[in-house]
């Protein structure tokens, strides 16, 4: 199949050139998935999408335009290519856009993206999701256990008119559980899930269910705190990854060029304390974010984005790199397997404060990357004398991202699960307000 | 029933054969349909900012176009469903989807649920915006908007303007011979500006659009107004001071601030959340759930509105659904599945993002009806509090309905007057308490200008919303950094 997609991609580039393009880059992809949702043992939904598509960007000198389509016939490709070339005529010259060249390309590496064992079919997924939801709903206090089991297979080809030809395929299996607990105002629903390239790498389904149930039940009886006050705030592993992702959007080359990030002058400066190192490693075998090149064909490699607190580089594509006078460092598809380094303190030691707030859930879009202002709805646990005292909901935490980064201190509980990983973190004293 | 042959030709069948294909593929189901769709999208945009160390502008333009299409086959069995789609128009693919769905979902104990009435409504034209304007004219318009924004304020650093248009053509075929066809245009002009002063940068944005042609939105009187809105938002942010915290009266401005009602009241009044009893409103039908004077409506019938539909994605004619009337809960928004579960009929609220997605009960144009007060009286009768006219985003916890919204544009109210502009204001509360504490409603109902996108279970849809100025005298708390 891949070979035919390679031919299609090259054909689209040839058609674009025939229509008058000087250069072109093309992605062709297809995917097929199966997903089952079960609730309290009953199968609720089945979804089985199957799709393919093509995306083509053509250059006419320094002018360019992009088109997408689903008609992979010769007529369909010709129509798209002709349209793209005609559109490019009217755009302004873009001195920053361009294609990757052979010196930037990567040698293919087998990153173990394909599960060699057959993927679970609809009936196996149905049985598994059903079993998971039964386990969840059997727990006292759980009014509804909702579980999803899914698999998918996808393949894609990227080609450009400099001769780039990259093809890849991959599989996913994922399991998700949620448990609804409580009644009236005291109701919670927490999730837990795992997604892996290889089904055998998944956390046991029993663990996934139990973790969702545990997280939901632990929030019962949550209430806001009475008086707004400043207190030490901690983010659990999941929330620390949210903070890490927000940091990534603040160091994107385009954001820096557009001055739409408060970190625009932060390169080579100490953004975090010296205990913090942030690494992106695209070459982890079976890693969820693994890839040896980005969507522009530029080779990716392991990079320390932050070393001992100092920001080393922006996340660049060919275009944003040229804007800043730098070569692409392979982030056209974003980060791959991103990790905030482990700390030196146990989680218990880190949380050993007289009074603090451990955040396990954030709400709202309160992180303003342009200004660094931070104000989010939060829930989690009040900590008293280093121990979890009671669950908290309905509060907001507010501060500035630059202070949070500076004060960020990690525990030593880093676990590698998804594509972005971080340990439990202290993010400094923040204003905690009640609703 | 007659439809044009465009889709049928793609499948190579006539109307009778199409009905047979769907009847065979959904044999044993109690509801479902074949949903065929073709979508054409285009966007042109322009952004400009000074070249580093120069006053000369660096202008970048983008032009994109996409064609998309395929079918989705839905098999409903006793309130549950299977859904399979393909980017394809072939009878083979439909048959294959049918047999896969049958294997997973089997035969319903019920007979086929009766088809909806075919709608003869028409709330928008069928002209294709994508063939309306030349690329020269589109880029000339973007440049004109850019220049105008710069002429209004010399501190403008970056301007981004985008003109976006799409057209979707849908055909619904049911097993019982029901067929209907619709053409749905959608256009939008988006404007955002960045102002820089003393090293501080702030942004503001605005947009307008609807189910109409470009001609309706590109008149300079429209976009000049929206440039002004974007500039004043950025300007106000430049002067903004940290927001105070605590429980205080909150006045919401007209129009887009209605997104709070949309999220916190609209979603819990969707049929599925009530059929599944995950909404706190599920056992409150007929009861007072809001202060007297509060009437909230969801309508799919507003001419040229983003949320308007001639019929929904199950073929049911849209309607104007009253949700809360003078404080009392009187209605919910239903698709066919949630309506059956609650023993009622669909309100024409079954929508999907496109053929890739199954139907869910969704909002169309959700708004709070006018009250009696003037907006000026509401502010002047509020000794202290905050006034919010725009939110940058928010979220609602589905289990409890508790909401958190981040204000984009907020002011302090001191002694009945608007004073400083505020930054970092977060509004948090409980929708049930907030509704009960809505003690003043203005007489100035405004709809948003055509910007709303609503997300639910991974599906994103164009909607409208609106409200007059209103006051919440409790049930919400403000979280700020001051």
Summarize the structure in words:
The complex is a heterodimer of chains A (435) and B (482). Chain A has 435 residues and is an alpha+beta fold. Chain A has three domains: 2-31 and 48-104, PmbA/TldD superfamily (PmbA/TldD fold, 2-Layer Sandwich); 122-217, 2-Layer Sandwich (PmbA/TldD fold); 222-435, no CATH class. Chain A is 22% helix and 37% strand. Chain A has helices at residues 2-18, 74-88, 122-137, 205-217, 237-250, 253-257, 318-323, 347-350, 401-407, and strands at 23-39, 42-47, 50-60, 63-69, 142-160, 165-183, 186-196, 229-235, 278-280, 303-307, 310-311, 338-340, 355-363, 373-384, 387-400, 409-410, 420-421, 425-434. In chain A, strands 1, 2, 3, 4, 5, 6 and 7 form a seven-stranded antiparallel β-sheet that branches. In chain A, helix 1 packs across helix 2 (74-88) and helix 3 packs parallel to helix 4 (205-217). The mean pLDDT of chain A is 95. By secondary structure, chain B is α+β, with helices and mostly antiparallel strands. Chain B is built from ten helices and 26 strands. Chain B has helices at residues 6-11, 15-25, 91-105, 135-152, 220-238, 259-266, 271-275, 336-341, 375-380, 431-436, and strands spanning 31-50, 57-77, 80-86, 156-173, 179-197, 200-210, 241-242, 246-247, 250-252, 296-299, 320-325, 328-329, 350-351, 360-361, 365-368, 384-396, 403-414, 417-423, 426-429, 438-441, 446-447, 453-456, 459-462, 464-467, 470-472, 476-479. In chain B, strands 7, 8, 9, 16, 17, 18, 19, 20, 25 and 26 form a ten-stranded mixed β-sheet that branches. A six-stranded antiparallel β-sheet of chain B has the order 3-2-1-4-5-6. In chain B, helix 2 packs parallel to helix 3 and helix 4 packs across helix 5 (220-238). The mean pLDDT of chain B is 94. Chains A and B meet through strand 2, strand 3, strand 4, helix 2 and helix 3 of A and strand 1, strand 2, strand 3, helix 3 and helix 4 of B.
């Amino acid at each position: 199949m891949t070979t035919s997609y390679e031919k299609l991609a090259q054909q689209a580039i040839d058609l674009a050139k025939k229509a008058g393009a000087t250069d072109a880059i093309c992605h062709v992809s297809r995917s097929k998935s199966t997903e089952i949702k079960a609730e309290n043992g009953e199968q609720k939904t089945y979804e089985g999408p199957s799709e393919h598509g093509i995306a083509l960007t053509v250059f006419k000198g320094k002018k360019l335009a992009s088109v997408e389509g689903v008609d992979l016939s010769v007529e369909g490709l010709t129509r798209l290519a002709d349209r793209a070339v005609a559109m490019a005529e009217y755009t302004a010259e873009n001195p920053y856009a361009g294609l990757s060249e052979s010196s930037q390309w990567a040698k293919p590496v087998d990153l173990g993206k394909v599960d060699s064992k057959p993927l679970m079919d609809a009936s196996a997924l149905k049985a598994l999701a059903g079993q998971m939801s039964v386990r969840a709903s059997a727990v006292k206090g759980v009014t509804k256990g909702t579980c999803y089991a899914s698999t998918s297979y996808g393949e894609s080809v990227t080609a450009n008119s400099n001769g780039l030809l990259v093809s890849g395929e991959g599989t996913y299996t994922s399991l998700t559980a949620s448990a609804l607990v409580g009644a009236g105002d005291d109701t919670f629903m927490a999730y837990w899930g795992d997604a892996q390239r290889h089904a055998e790498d998944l956390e046991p389904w029993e663990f996934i269910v139990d973790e969702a149930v545990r997280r939901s039940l632990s929030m019962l009886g949550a209430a806001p705190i009475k008086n707004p006050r400043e207190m030490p705030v901690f983010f659990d592993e999941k929330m620390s990854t949210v903070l890490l992702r927000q940091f990534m959007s603040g160091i994107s080359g385009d954001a820096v060029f557009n001055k739409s990030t408060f970190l625009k002058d932060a390169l080579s400066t100490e953004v975090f304390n010296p205990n913090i190192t942030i690494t992106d490693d695209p070459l982890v075998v079976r890693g969820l974010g693994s890839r040896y090149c980005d969507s522009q064909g530029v080779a990716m490699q392991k990079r320390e984005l932050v070393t001992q607190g100092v920001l080393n580089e922006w996340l660049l594509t060919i275009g944003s790199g040229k804007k800043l006078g730098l070569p692409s460092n392979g982030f056209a598809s974003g980060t791959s397997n991103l990790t905030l380094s482990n700390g030196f303190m146990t989680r218990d030691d880190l949380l050993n404060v007289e009074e603090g707030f451990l955040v396990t859930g954030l709400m709202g879009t309160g992180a303003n990357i342009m200004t660094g202002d931070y104000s989010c709805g939060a829930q989690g646990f009040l900590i008293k004398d280093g121990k979890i005292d009671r669950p908290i909901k309905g509060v907001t935490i507010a501060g500035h991202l630059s202070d949070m980064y500076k004060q960020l201190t990690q525990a030593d509980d880093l676990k590698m699960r998804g594509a972005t990983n971080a340990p439990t973190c202290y993010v400094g004293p923040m204003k905690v307000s009640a609703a | 029933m007659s439809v044009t042959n465009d889709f049928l030709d793609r499948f190579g069948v006539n109307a009778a054969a199409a009905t047979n294909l769907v009847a065979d593929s959904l044999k044993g189901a109690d509801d479902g349909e074949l949903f065929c769709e073709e979508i054409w999208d285009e966007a042109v945009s322009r952004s400009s900012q000074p070249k580093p160390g120069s006053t000369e502008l660096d202008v970048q333009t983008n032009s994109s176009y996409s064609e998309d299409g395929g079918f989705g086959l839905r098999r409903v069995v006793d309130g549950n469903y299977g859904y399979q789609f393909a980017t394809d128009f072939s009878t083979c693919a439909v048959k294959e989807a049918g047999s896969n769905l049958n294997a997973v979902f089997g035969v319903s104990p019920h007979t086929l649920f009766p088809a909806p009435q075919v709608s003869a409504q028409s709330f928008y034209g069928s002209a294709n915006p994508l063939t309306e304007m030349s690329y020269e004219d589109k880029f000339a318009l973007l440049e004109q908007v850019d220049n105008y924004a710069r002429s209004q304020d010399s501190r403008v650093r970056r301007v981004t303007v985008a003109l976006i248009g799409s057209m979707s053509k849908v055909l619904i075929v049911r097993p019982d011979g029901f067929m209907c066809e619709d053409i749905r245009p959608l256009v939008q002009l988006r404007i955002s500006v960045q102002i820089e002063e003393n090293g501080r940068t702030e942004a503001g944005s605005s947009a307008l659009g609807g189910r109409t042609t470009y001609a309706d939105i590109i008149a300079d009187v429209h976009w000049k107004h929206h440039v002004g809105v974007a500039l004043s938002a950025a300007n106000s942010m430049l002067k903004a001071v940290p927001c105070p915290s605590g429980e205080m009266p909150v006045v919401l401005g007209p129009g887009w601030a209605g997104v709070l009602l949309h999220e916190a009241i609209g979603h819990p009044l969707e049929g599925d959340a009530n059929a599944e009893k995950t909404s706190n409103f599920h056992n409150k039908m007929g009861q007072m759930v809001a202060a007297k004077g509060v009437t909230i409506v969801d309508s799919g019938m507003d001419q040229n509105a983003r949320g308007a539909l001639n019929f929904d994605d199950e073929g049911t004619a849209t309607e104007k659904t009253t949700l809360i009337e003078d404080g009392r809960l009187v209605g919910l928004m239903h698709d066919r599945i949630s309506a059956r579960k609650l023993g009622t009929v669909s309100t024409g609220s079954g929508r999907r993002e496109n053929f890739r997605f199954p139907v869910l009960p969704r909002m169309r144009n959700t708004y709070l009806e006018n009250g009696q007060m003037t907006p000026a009286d509401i502010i002047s009768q509020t000794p202290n509090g905050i006034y919010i006219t725009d939110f940058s985003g928010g979220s609602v916890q589905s289990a409890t309905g508790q909401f958190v919204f981040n204000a984009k544009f907020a002011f302090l109210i001191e002694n009945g007057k608007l004073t400083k502009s505020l930054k970092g204001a977060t509004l948090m509360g409980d929708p049930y308490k907030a509704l009960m504490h809505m003690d003043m409603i203005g007489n100035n109902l405004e709809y948003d200008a055509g910007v709303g996108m609503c997300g639910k279970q991974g599906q994103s849809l164009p909607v409208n919303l609106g409200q007059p100025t209103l006051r919440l005298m409790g049930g919400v708390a403000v979280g700020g950094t001051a």
